[in-house]
Amino acid sequence: GVWSFTAPLSNDRAFYQYELSLYHYTNQKFQTLVSSDPYSVSLSENGVYSQFVNLADESLKPTDWDSHTIPVVAGIEDAIIYEGNIRDFSIRDESTTTANRGKYLAFTEQDSAPVMHLKSLVASGLTHFQILPANDIASVNENFSAQINLTSTVDELCAINTAAPVCGVESGSATLLSVFESYDPATTDAKLLTQAIEGLDGYNFGYDPKHFNAPDGNFASNTDGVSRILEMRSMNKALHDMGLRTSLDVVYNHTNTSGLYNNSVLDLVVPGYYYRRDLTTGGVMNATCCHDTETEHRMMDKLMLDSLVMWATEYKFDAFRFDIMGSHSKTSIVNALAAVKAVDADTYFYGEGWSRPNEGYEQAGQNEMAGTEIGTFNDRPRDTMLSASLFNDAASLNDQDIMRLGLSGTLADYQLQNKSGETELGKNFSQSSYAKDPADIINYVSKHDGATLWDKLQYGLATDMSVDDRVRAQNITITMPIMSQGIPFLQIGGDLIRSKSMDRNSYNNGDWYNLVDFTKNTNNWNVGLPIEFENGKTLADIADIINNPETTVNASHISFAGDVFNEFVSIRSSSKLFSLATAQDVYDRVGFHNTGAKQTKGLIVMSLDDGTGLTDLDTSNDAIVVVINGSSEEQSHTIATANGFELHSVQQNSVDTTVQGASFSQGTDEGTFTVPALTTAVFVKPQIGAQGSGLAAGVTRDAADEAPYGNTVIYLNDTNGFDDEDTFSYAGNGVYKLDTVLAAGEQSFTITSEDSIEVNLGFTDVSIGGNSVEVTNDNGSFVVNVDTEGSFTFILDASGEVPVLTISSVSLTVNCSALMDSTDAIPFAIAGDGELYVKGDHSGWVADEAYRLHYKGNNTYQAVAEFDGAMQFKLASSDGSWSTQLWAQAADSTAIDDTNLALGVTYSVSYEDAGTDNNKTTLAAGSYSFLLTLNEANPSKGSDVGTMIIQQCSE
After folding, report:
1. Can you give the pLDDT at residue 4?
2. What CATH number labels 714-809?
3. Nearest to 241 by CA among 319, 345, 316, 346
4. Angle, helix 467-479 to helix 555-574, in steps of 10 degrees
5. What residue spans define the domains of the chain?
6. What is the pTM for the complete model shown?
7. With contact defined as beta carbons under 8 Å apart, do 346 and 316 qualify?
8. Rounded distance, CA 184 to CA 313, Å?
9. What's the pLDDT at 437?
10. Could you tell me if 288 and 275 are in contact, meaning their C-beta atoms sit under 8 angstroms apart?
11. Residue 906 CA, distance from chain mean position
12. What share of the chain is helix, strand, coil (3-state, %, to 5)?
């Protein structure tokens, strides 16, 4: 339970501390300590003292607080969330009253540029505003007079930090803002000055909690006492009055510190109880970033639950976003949701469901939370969108499949025709879909941490792409989550091409790098070299990008991007078809076209059906088609049965005159959609009166498969001719297959029809697949040298203009005890603990000793373990970042192979970061060997570094 006592009313607003006599594990002493109250609802400056407060006191409520109207959404899938930092919202906005800049009360200024911007988004359909953590934190000194901010002078900074680069160099009376403005952005000057201010200013994202239940004083007009309560409530009421529901980012997985350190609270009151501790050393763990709490302990769990109920009840927050949610148990989050729903029935929970180290409980991770309608951030399509793959002619078609799955809500059981023309479930793709309900998914391309969308895209866009086209690419990418099933989530200013000057982790980088300009004069690009940048990149790489004049936007670009963003929010909000409430509705209504082996790169075509036979969700339209053209040319695509479509009325009147040129032309039992380059166009089939025919989700996916050579039978034609045993079977999707035995020696052959006229393929008529055995040319015939008689598989992919022939030697089984472990040190510089593991869904995505690859000598590694069923995996190091990754390459490229790896086939291996892409295979229950053979002892990153083969153990 929680201790409580009743005191006279005269103690109201009095400050207090606890005096505690106890034994503390850190110094192993009995001692007397003083502490603030872990359940504090109000505090003195910097949280030194707690304050007795009656939260029901009328003086702590803005006018009409108890009776004001809170906006509602019909279903949580209708939500569109905009995330922002309270400080970023207004700290540098000149239209906001000086005293309120960076404060709660900035949201109450109805005519300021930031508030007017929010109102314009609400008018288009924005539903939620999420604030970054706003409870009491430890990292910012709340004494405003002691802070060094952009308005401070050089002398004021140098009085505190004599090592700052401006000391003795710049005029002492100059403001730091003026100094920043004077710097050459191509230098490290802004970076070094920012680092000199870190910890002295009022800036921090706030992910370092000290007290969970009290608003942070740094955003209040008075840091001592109850102003924070009234003013946070005023902020929320102002947002509600604008038409926005409010969401609070909460951090219960760690605190700023523990033990006897300054800012420790929980660990002073009940030493050792609230934290996750190392079972060997007893030390507090810091797997999150800081000092990890342990909500598996009942009273820590209760503290979190009570805190959430308090924020919902006393401050009327309508939703909660959980930092590192996977550090909590699924049970804990589900129970907390039930408790909050008891006081606010339409609340919504969502959070970071990234996999965490196994601590013996079911995590609140992506896979575990699927089906709970508690949202998790969706990284599956995110990385492919951020890579600018859609705008790259050489990109993998697998990326487009992953984006399609994202548009359909990343549902595990959604059926999509993949790049090879095969229909498979979302969960079986290389980046496995995991959701069971659209509400499980938060779709995004940027949020507070990580590079902004604009900054990230510049790494992947072509150097010679014009700035106008870059803005169009930005518009396509940021609006893809808006067109997706699930809940769109946008970073504040992303709609205005926000930049942090390529900085990828600006949590403590102050107001210079974190500017959001709602006047649309600047997007904050190239204001100084970044403090922290993308892994694998250098300042020289970034200098090349920022020195490219095509990466600099002007005010008209920013205004254009903002207007286009608003149009897409309006389009989404106009039809329930973009926010389907059940997985079954998605299966029944969402279809994709331009799929399979013959698809056009850079073109995604999605249909949404609302025709007869389905519940009429959109009484204005019988169907919608979204065409996303990421290519540099106009594209047309024809869909069978499509008829009666026209460009959406919003786009007919769009600020983007290019999209106005998108068109639909009617054919016989089909229709063709034509869309300009770098454009997303939305077409509707208006419903005239009663519900009419729509556009079936499976019209393309379920169409009959036509073999490239029709009914013609093809054979492996060697020097002895051919017979029935040499017949290729048609496997579908343009692929022919033959399993046969080749005798030892030189084998020569062609691939022909019976008459050698209809089909007659020789060496010069095909390309050889990347994973094929060596094939040479002898006067047009294929030649393979076979060392010993054995089984071979011939795959002829005739789906493209040039057929691809892959010949694989097949050895299904192996003696798994034949190779002995080597006593030599592993020569490969592997990250983490220095070992490789078969890491995937079979191992919970972590390094498991059962799946470790043992070093066998001669650059050979082998894992022997039990496997059963479909699995996705890579060979990777033990660390959570998977810093060392090896994987099987595709047959026709150096990209990762996203097809089902076959048993007994040798695959070429790459040593690169494949992101969230994985290999996959399906194994019947049994023991298997994963054998990796490297070409060099310690290879450099790249393709073709070795080979991998999966075989079943014969003994």
Report:
1. 87
2. 2.60.40
3. 316
4. 30
5. 58-64+80-140+202-375, 148-197, 573-686, 714-809, 814-953
6. 0.89
7. no
8. 50
9. 99
10. no
11. 33
12. 25, 25, 50
Please, are residues 137 and 211 in contact by the beta-carbon 8 Å criterion? Answer: no
* CA distances (Å), origin 747, targets 76, 97, 717, 754, 764: 64, 84, 11, 20, 17
SS (H, E, C) 743-810: CCEEEEEEEEECCCCCCEECHHHCEECCCCCCCEEECCEEEEEECCCEEEEEEEECCCCCCEEEEEEE
Q: Domain 58-64+80-140+202-375, what fold?
A: TIM Barrel (3.20.20)
d(CA 167, CA 174): 11
Which is the catalytic residue, given 224, 352, 511, 585? 352
Pick the closest to residue 501 from 458, 446, 557 (CA basis): 458
Structure letter (DSSP) for residue 461: S
Q: Does residue 179 contact residue 151 with C-beta atoms inside 8 Å?
A: no
Asked about 156 being catalytic, the answer comes back as no
Q: Output the six-digit token pair for 781.
A: 């015939």
Closest CA to 320 of 481, 137, 128: 128
Q: Reply yes or no on whether 544 is catalytic.
A: no
CA 292 to each of CA 113, 272, 274, 769: distance values in angstroms, whole numbers, following the listed order = 39, 11, 9, 50
In the DSSP assignment, the letter for residue 282 is -
Q: Which residues contact 909 (CB under 8 A, 6 or more apart)?
A: 875, 886, 887, 888, 889, 932, 934, 944, 945, 946, 947, 948
Question: In this structure, are residues 939 and 911 in contact, taking their beta carbons and an 8 Å threshold?
Answer: yes
Look at the chain and count its residues: 955
pLDDT of residue 69: 98
Residue with tokens 């110094």, as numbered in its chain: 27
Integer angstrom CA distances of residue 778 from 78, 498, 788 = 64, 59, 21
CA distance 827 to 251: 42
Question: Exposed, middle or buried by CB within 10 Å (0-12, 13-18, 19+), for 540?
Answer: exposed
Instruction: Identify the three-state secondary structure at position 510.
Output: helix
Q: Which amino acid is at 805?
A: L
C-alpha count within 13 angstroms, C-beta hemisphere, residue 1: 3
Predicted local confidence at residue 478, as pLDDT: 98
814-953 belongs to CATH 2.60.40.3620: yes
Low-confidence stretches of the chain (pLDDT < 50) are none
User: In 10 A of CB 469, how many CB atoms?
Assistant: 17
722 DSSP assignment: -
b/e burial code for range 331-370 (CB count within 10 A of at least 16 → b) = ebbbebbebbeeebeebbbbbbbbebeeeeeebbbbbbbb
Comparing 573-686 with 814-953, is the CATH topology the same?
A: yes
714: nearest Cα among 803, 608, 801, 800: 803
Q: How many helices (H) and strands (E) does the chain have?
A: 19, 44
- Catalytic-role residue among 37, 216, 318, 323: 323
The structure tokens listed for 454 are 């604009």
Q: Is 187 helix (H, G, I), strand (E, B) or coil?
A: coil
On whether the 573-686 domain is CATH 3.10.180.10, my answer is: no
